[in-house]
Each structure stands twice: as structure tokens, then as C-alpha cells.
Amino acid sequence: MSHIDYLPTLQDANESLLPQQLEILRQQVINEGGDDATIQSRFNYAWGLIKSNYLNNERLGIKILTDIYKESPNRRRECLYYLTIGCYKINEFTMAKRYVDTLYEHEPHNKQVQILKQMVEDKIQRETVKGIAIGAGIIAGVATVVGIVSRLRKK
User: Rounded CA gap, 33 and 46, in Å?
Assistant: First the structure.
């Protein structure tokens, strides 16, 4: 995988393009023949879609990047990074972790990759703790209801 010194941060992914800017990227891809458009044009459009605040756009951006990853080995490093960001944004944390772990295997000393990996892992941990807390709350609620019903039956 080739090394690129600058990659956008996760915060950069939350700065949406204006609809007109995204449309320019889309038209570029269409003008170049859609699926036959240059990898760079499709890549730019995919990144614009991932930056969107609309889930369908983000999912389309992920699909386009996945296609680029499969057909262009020299762009895989960038695709993994952007796929991690896209999956993170749509709360697909398992996939985000898979992508960032693969990237980390190739670039363990890259600070941006390390930061992204830590952000994904922290989010997974927070979601796990939240899920456990919700589960414990539900169990406590059910136990309370069972206790109340049991007491009412004894009376």
C-alpha cells in the first residue's frame, strides 16, 4: 500500500459539501461514463457522499469506495481509510473496525491511522457499555414487575 501523508480526520467527514458541490462531483462521474468514469472522479464523488448528512448518500459513497477497493489495488490504502470513516458515520462499527485494523496492519506507525483506530475502538467500547446498561435496566425492570406481581398474588 502506498503511503500518503495527509488524510482527512473524522471531523472533516462531518463537514458536508453544499448540494451544488456534490452535484458537480456527480455530474463529473456521469460525464465520464458513470461506472466507467475515472477512479479519481468516482473517489471524489464517494468522499463527497460520505461527507453528506444523508444515510443513503453515505451508503452509496461506501459502495463506490468498496468497488474502487476491489478494482484498484493501488488505491486500497485510501479506500480503507475512507471506508472506516464512512462506516463509523453510519454506526457500522464492526465494519469500521475491520477496515481500520487492516489499514493498521500495514501502517502501525501512521499517527492518523492510530487516531482513527482509537476513535473506532472507543466508540465500540462506549456502545458496548451503553448496551450493557440498557440490558441491565431492562432486567431490573422485569425483576421489579415480577416482584410486584408476586407480592400481589400472595395477598
Answer: 16
Per the CB < 8 A criterion, the answer to whether 96 and 13 are in contact is no
In whole angstroms, give the CA distance from residue 143 to residue 34.
57
Can you give the pTM of this predicted structure? 0.74
Per residue in 19-70, pLDDT (tens digit) is: 999 999 999 999 999 888 999 999 999 999 999 999 999 999 999 999 999 9
Q: Are 75 and 39 in contact (CB under 8 A)?
A: yes
Rounded CA gap, 41 and 36, in Å?
A: 10
Q: What is the DSSP string of 16-74?
A: PPPHHHHHHHHHHHHHTTGGGS-HHHHHHHHHHHHTSS-HHHHHHHHHHHHHHHHH-GG
- Copy the grid coordinates of residue 70: 476491489
